[in-house]
Amino acid sequence: MLYSFSGIEGGKPIILEKIDENLEELQDIWYCITNCTHFFYGIRRIIVKKALSLILIVCMIFSSLSLNAAAEEPEDVSIVHFISDGIIILRKADGMIVAARGLTGEVIVPQTIEGITVRGIEAAAGVSPFEESPYMTMLTLPGSIETLVSNAITSQNLFSLTLSNGTKTIEQGAINADELTSLTFPDSLSSIKGNFLTSDKAKIYISGNNPYFSMDGQGLIYNKQMNEIVAFAGERALHANLTLPSGVKIIRGGAFASTKASNTLKTITFNGDLEEIGDGAFMGSSGLREIDLPASLKKIGTYAFANCQSFESIMIPDATELSGYAFAECRKLTSVSLGEAVTVIPEGTFSGTGLMNIPNLSVLTEIGANAFVRCPLGVNIDFPASLARIGSGAFAGCKMLESVSFGGEIEIGEAAFEETGIKGTLTLDYKIRFTGTRQFAGCPISSLVVRSGVFSLPTAMLEGCMKLYEVTIPPSVTSMNNFLGNLPMVNRGITMRAEQGSAAHIYANEQKLRFIATGAVEMNFIDIGTHWAKEDILWANRAGLFGGVSSVLFSPNTSMLREMFAAVLYRTTGDAIPTELSGFADVADNVYFTRAASWAKSAGIIQGIEPTLFGTGMPIRRQDIVTMLYRYAEYIGEDMSNSAPIDGFADASDVSGYAIAPMMWAVASGIIAGDELGNLNPFGLATRAEVAAILHRFFEGPPETDPEQEIPEEPGEENPEDTIPEEPPEDVSEPPEEDTIK
After folding, report:
1. What is the DSSP string of 204-248?
2. CA within 20 to 30 Å of 538's CA: 96, 210, 287, 421, which one?
3. Are 266 and 287 in contact (CB under 8 A)?
4. Is the dihedral of CA 446, 451, 457, 458 positive or negative?
5. Average pLDDT for residues 10-21, to the nearest whole number?
6. Sheet holding 495-498: strands in order across?
């Protein structure tokens, strides 16, 4: 960068056209000198004069060294202009002020410097050149600056600003001066783009000769015809409550956007003539609590009320057209009333709000992209037949949403329900069409049922669904498109039900999923006919977690051994290969649970009864089942914040210290319930039936009415033979035929 210097002691300008880039350091020296405190003002003046002499000498030396340089001046030459104890640096090429350092007191920027017209103020990367002049208190800008860009003026102590005749435009956010008390507009000013001023103290002066704007006593700036509100500014005392005068039809974009002035606004009363609220008109007005929109309103612009943190409800007139993100991030907004004529929710309209219901759901035809992102919507949503489209990400992150159903033909966009709370069984039929990918990714869905007539599944539709254990696919599906996405280890135990030789069968083989041919006979256990856990047992069998002691016997009241439970959890991983051996002395190298024990230890799920003992052959206690399942839930990335007190149970004090937090989580999640005596029975031996019930509740959620568990008084004999998996790892010796645990 090359500099010219001007304005020295009122004498003739000194022009040094070729100065080395190192002279930028001189500018910094000057800045340091001129920012001494006022207490040393007299000393500073002496230092300044001496420093100026030194600067001139150095400059002339550098100038003399470059006399033989080419005559053409580089485009990036800048002028250093000394003024008000500081400097203004002007770029010659375009007349832009690029720096203003050390300015103090009253500053009047000249219209020309060294014959170069001052054309504007450059706020590079949103940083004002005037930030480096904290002691500037009054500023007059020349009329040659036609546009005051965003962030042009930032000054912490500026209390007076005058724009000279010739300035035409003030952009939104142009003046960041919280202490400003006086602002004068020229008659030439013809364009104000939104809320331009941070101060809530300023008196704004607009001449009656200005042909474009006028003001009222409430701090509102209007167009000359007084039918449009252009901006909101003025003194704090005016800001608590506003009443718009009759005749105002339009509130322009950004008019009340987030500033100190708009944040003090609590209520606003609209007149009966208002027709349009512009883009971002009230965006970030955090103090606004009550608004009563008039029936005359025809349009609400994009981001019009976005990030208004205080108001809780709003009634939108029948004929009003909504725009995208109009109420985005209004976190306290829990109630919205829409006229029946509103059939489309535009993109992002209610994203990040507190809405628990979808307004106008019964008549909606389209829900736009991101329309309800992260809203705490109700548990169940039944979409009507009238709804034809749900846009990308429309309900993403709605954690409270647990189930959805679709009434008619509908298009579901990319990631529409990603990371929601949808769980249990998801059923899809031919009426549903998909665009994009990841529609239900990351949901706690436990099973997927696809109806006949569906031909293709979208890519990664169920990626990251950590509780998914079963998928049923009809032969009509010919394009699988890797709908499960990148399967983590814990998802490798998914069971695929489909026809032999179908696309789903091929996909199951490719992904190494457990495959069951459609129509396979379900185990018919004769000893569970009236058992309280019958449905849980059949579920566990269908899910491939474990089977019976024979083809007709399940032995529900037999105690579950520790190694059995480790094997059951291990099967949910698809029999992944552990990275290291367990190190347990009582776990042999060639038994069915060798890998399960090693995996469980490395995953932090089972620690053993001692550092070197797994506890092989020992029945597992109820509190240990809960503790292991708690660690397993952490392992697969479940939200573990669910917790409930257990002191209401008669034997709560019997729960061991390590099992208290897991037991509180299990009770809160509905995974475990007390017996008929109101006991948790933490040291009771868990039966095969109880384990089936606990796993069923973990993967699919508790039933709506939890049947009372009847803990048998005398459990049947343990059957340690019932521990061998039907399909052991390749390096495990072949089990006897009668061992049928799956």
Report:
1. EEE-TT-SSEEE-TTSEEEETTSSEEEEE-S-GGG-SEEEPPTT-
2. 421
3. yes
4. negative
5. 39
6. 424-428, 445-450, 470-472, 495-498, 514-517
Phi, psi of 527 (to 5 degrees): -105, 20
What is the average pLDDT score of the chain?
A: 81
Q: Is the dihedral of CA 526, 529, 533, 534 positive or negative?
A: positive
**DSSP assignment letter at 197:** B
- Which of 605, 662, 698 is CA-nearest to residue 596? 605
Question: Hey, what amino acid is at 616?
Answer: T
Residue 33's nearest CA partner among 50, 48, 13, 49 is 48
Beta bridge partners of 336: 314
Which residue blocks in 476-528 are alpha helix, DSSP H?
Answer: 503-511
CA-to-CA distance for 411 and 397, rounded, in angstroms? 19
In single-letter form, the type of residue at position 434 comes to F
Q: How many CB atoms lie within 10 A of CB 648?
A: 11
Strand 344-345, strand 366-367: pairing: parallel
* Residue 328 CA neighbour count, 13 Å, CB half: 21
Joined tokens for residue 585 = 């002395």
Q: Are 199 and 177 in contact (CB under 8 A)?
A: yes
Partners of 214 in beta bridges: 222
In angstroms, rounded to a whole number, what is the distance separating the alpha carbons of residues 149 and 587? 74
The yes-or-no verdict on residue 630 having pLDDT over 60 is yes
CA distance 630 to 95: 68
Contact 564, 723 (CB under 8 A): yes
Per-residue CA distances from 636 to 62, 167, 223 (Å): 69, 62, 60
List pLDDT tens digits, range 713-738: 333 333 333 333 333 333 333 333 32
Q: Give yes or no for a contact between 428 and 448, defined as CB atoms under 8 angstroms apart.
A: yes
Higher pLDDT, 513 or 673: 513
| pLDDT value of residue 390 | 97
- The yes-or-no verdict on residue 524 having pLDDT over 80 is no
Distance CA 331, CA 346 (A): 18
pLDDT of residue 363: 92
Please state whether beta strands 78-83 and 213-215 pair in parallel, antiparallel, or not at all (unpaired).
unpaired
State the virtual CA torsion across 174, 178, 180, 183 in degrees, nearest 10.
Answer: 30
Quote the CA–CA distance of 363 and 380 in Å, as a whole number: 18
DSSP, res 22: G
Gap between the terminal Cα atoms of the chain: 77
Is it the case that residue 281 has pLDDT exceeding 50? yes
Neighbours of 656 (CB within 10 A): 13
Question: For residue 430, what are the contacts with CB-CB under 8 A and spacing of at least 6?
Answer: 451, 452, 453, 454
Q: How far apart are CA 443 and CA 422, in angstroms?
A: 6
Any idea which of 356-360, 672-676, 683-687 has the lowest mean pLDDT?
Answer: 672-676
Kind of pairing between the strands at 220-223 and 228-232: antiparallel
Closest CA to 211 of 231, 230, 227, 191: 191
Structure token digits, residue 450: 């696809």
Contacts of 115 (CB under 8 A, 6+ apart): none
| C-alpha 111: how far from chain center | 48
- pTM, two decimals, is 0.66
Question: Considering only CA atoms, which of 252, 259, 210 is closest in space to residue 234?
Answer: 259
Q: Strand 276-277 relative to strand 250-251: parallel, antiparallel, unpaired? A: parallel
pLDDT reported for residue 258:
65
Q: Which of 601, 664, 686, 593 is nearest to 635 (CA)?
A: 601
